[in-house]
Design goal:
- With 332 residues, the chain is an alpha/beta fold.
- It has 2 domains: 5-57, no CATH class; 68-305, EAL domain (TIM Barrel).
- Helix content is 45%, strand content 20%.
- The protein has helices at residues 17-33, 44-63, 103-113, 116-136, 150-154, 158-169, 182-186, 189-200, 218-223, 233-236, 243-258, 271-279, 296-305; strands at 5-7, 39-41, 69-78, 84-95, 99-101, 143-147, 176-181, 205-211, 216-217, 228-231, 262-265, 284-285, 294-295, 330-331.
- It has an 8-stranded mixed beta barrel with strand order 3-4-6-7-8-10-11-12, surrounded by 4 helices.
- Helix 2 packs across helix 3 (103-113) and helix 4 runs parallel beside helix 6.
- The radius of gyration is 22 Å and the shape is globular.
- The chain starts with a strand and ends with a strand.
- Bound molecules: ligand C2E and magnesium ion (MG) (2 copies).
- One magnesium ion binds next to loops.
C-alpha cells in the first residue's frame, strides 16, 4: 500500500473545518494524479481546475444531442504503392464557448465520467456511415480506423455497438479497423485475449496504437488476433538522427513482420523520416508530411491525388500465431 497526502492550512486555505477538509481532499487528488505515493499542498488553481472539469463534464453530456462533435480524417499511405489505403477518424469538439477543442482536452474527462461510451458509439457509427458513403460515391475501398478508449473496450456492449454500426451503414467489416493501446490490452492480458477474439469475429481489423510507449508482453502480443501495429510518433520524431529511436523503430518493424502484422509509422513529418522508414520496410505511414487530419469533405480530393488501390477482404497480411517461446519476453 502507498499513501497520497493532501495538505491545507488554516487560515490561508479556509476558515472552517469543512472548507479545509475539502481543499485537503483536492490536494490529495492532485497528489494521486502526479503519480501517487506523495503529497501536495492545496493551491487555489486546484479549485479552478475542478470547476472547469465539472463544467466540461456537464457540457460533454449535452454535446452529442447538440451535434457538436465532428470527425476529421487523417490519410494513411502505403509505402509500397504510394496509394492511400485508409484514414484514421479523429474526433473534434466544436464547443459553443471554447471553440474547437482537441481530443486530448476532453477525451480523458469523457473517459472518467463515462460519457466516452456514448461518444465512442457515435464515433463508430459516424465513421462507418462516412466510409460507406465514400464507397457509395464510387471511391475505391479504403479502411477507416477508429480509436477505442479503455472504458469502451471494457464495455460488455462493445461487440453489439460495432455490429450495429456495420449493419446500419452496410460497411463490410474488413473496412473498419479498431485501434487499442498497449496499456488497454496488457492490463489483464488473458481477458483482453478473449475480448479481442470476440471483437475479431465481427470481421473488423484490430490495431495496437502508440506501440512502444507501454509495456507489452511479446508472448501475449503474438496470441492476440491483431492485424496492425502503429509505431508511436515519439520514436519517429528524431529519425533518422537519433540512433536509439532508429534502432527501436527497426526492431518494431522487424518484430511486426515476424508476427505477420502490418506496421504503420505515425507522425511522419519530413522526407528524411520517410526515406528511413521506406528503407526499413515499414508498410504504411501517417503524418503531417502527407496530410493533417482533414474534414470528410476534403478526403475525396486527397484521394484523387493518391489513388486508392481498392482493398479486398483477403488482402493484407493475416496475423500469424508465432510460438510464444521464440519471441518470449517483455519489452517496453
Ligand atoms: P492517436 O490515435 O495516436 O492519433 C494521432 C494523433 O497524432 C492525432 O492527434 C493526430 O492529429 C496527430 N498527428 C498525426 N500526424 C502527426 C504529425 O505528423 N505530427 C504531429 N505532431 N502530430 C501528428 P489528435 O487528433 O489530437 O488526437 C490525439 C489522440 O486523441 C489520439 O491519438 C487518440 O488517442 C485520441 N482520440 C482521437 N479521436 C478519438 C476518438 O474518437 N475516440 C477516442 N477514444 N480517442 C480519440
Ligand atoms: Mg489512433
Ligand atoms: Mg497513435
Amino acid at each position: 500500500m502507498t499513501a497520497s497526502i493532501g495538505v491545507s492550512s488554516f487560515p490561508e486555505d479556509g476558515n472552517d473545518a469543512q472548507t479545509l477538509l475539502k481543499h485537503a481532499d483536492l490536494a490529495m487528488y492532485a497528489a494521486k494524479q502526479l503519480g501517487k505515493n506523495g503529497f501536495q499542498y492545496y493551491v487555489r488553481e486546484m479549485s479552478v481546475s475542478l470547476q472547469n472539469r465539472i463544467d466540461m463534464e456537464s457540457h460533454l453530456r449535452s454535446a452529442l444531442e447538440h451535434n457538436e462533435f465532428v470527425l476529421h480524417y487523417q490519410p494513411r499511405i502505403s509505402l509500397d504503392t504510394d496509394a492511400c489505403t485508409g484514414v484514421e477518424a479523429l474526433i473534434r469538439w466544436h464547443h459553443p464557448k471554447l471553440g474547437l477543442v482537441m481530443p486530448a482536452d476532453f477525451i480523458p474527462v469523457a473517459e472518467e465520467c463515462g460519457a466516452i461510451v456514448q461518444i465512442g458509439a457515435w464515433v463508430l457509427r459516424e465513421a462507418c456511415r462516412q466510409n460507406a458513403q465514400w464507397l457509395a460515391d464510387g471511391i475505391a475501398p479504403i479502411r477507416v480506423s477508429v480509436n477505442l478508449s479503455a472504458r469502451q473496450f471494457a464495455d460488455k456492449d462493445l461487440r453489439r455497438v460495432v455490429l450495429d454500426a456495420l449493419k446500419q451503414s452496410g460497411l463490410p467489416g474488413y473496412l473498419l479497423e479498431l485501434e487499442l493501446t498497449e496499456s488497454m490490452v496488457m492490463r489483464d492480458a488473458e481477458q483482453a485475449a478473449r475480448w479481442l477474439s470476440r471483437l475479431k469475429r465481427t470481421g473488423v481489423r484490430l490495431a495496437i496504437d502508440d506501440f512502444g510507449t507501454g509495456y507489452s508482453s511479446l508472448a501475449y502480443l503474438s496470441r492476440f488476433p491483431i492485424d496492425t501495429v502503429k509505431i508511436d510518433r515519439s520514436f519517429i520524431r528524431y529519425l533518422p538522427d537519433s540512433r536509439s529511436d532508429a534502432q527501436i523503430t527497426s526492431a518494431i518493424i522487424g518484430l511486426g513482420h515476424q508476427m505477420a502484422l502490418e506496421v504503420v509509422a505515425e507522425g511522419v513529418e519530413n522526407e528524411a523520416q520517410l526515406d528511413f522508414l521506406r528503407c526499413e520496410g515499414c508498410d504504411e505511414v501517417q503524418g503531417y508530411y502527407f496530410s493533417h487530419p482533414i474534414p470528410a469533405a476534403d478526403v475525396t480530393a486527397f484521394l484523387a491525388g493518391h489513388t486508392a488501390h481498392g482493398l479486398l477482404p483477403e488482402q493484407g497480411p493475416q496475423p500469424m500465431r508465432a510460438p510464444a517461446s521464440t519471441i518470449g519476453g517483455t519489452a517496453s
